[in-house]
Amino acid sequence: MEAAQILDRVVARFIGTKHERDIKKLQPLIAAINAREAEVQSLSDEGLKTRFAELRAQVQEQLKDADPAYKEQLQQALEPAIVPAFALVREAGRRS
Q: Is the entire prediction scored with pTM above 0.90?
């Protein structure tokens, strides 16, 4: 066995594989999306469209005065929209 493989196995045993670390990092987002499931399921099709439009408007409002180097502003604008957007998309996918 190669030294690099042995090192990878030792590191994976103590801190987990990259996949496991990525999953652990995403768990809070997944929990937040799942928490919105009942709320989103109760929306009508028109209600889903309205919520998408509201999210889009919120993000656009936050980015309207963005300068050309707006990567940080983009992240700040999109971060709060991620969970509701995924919850809405998941429900829209179930209905189609």
A: no
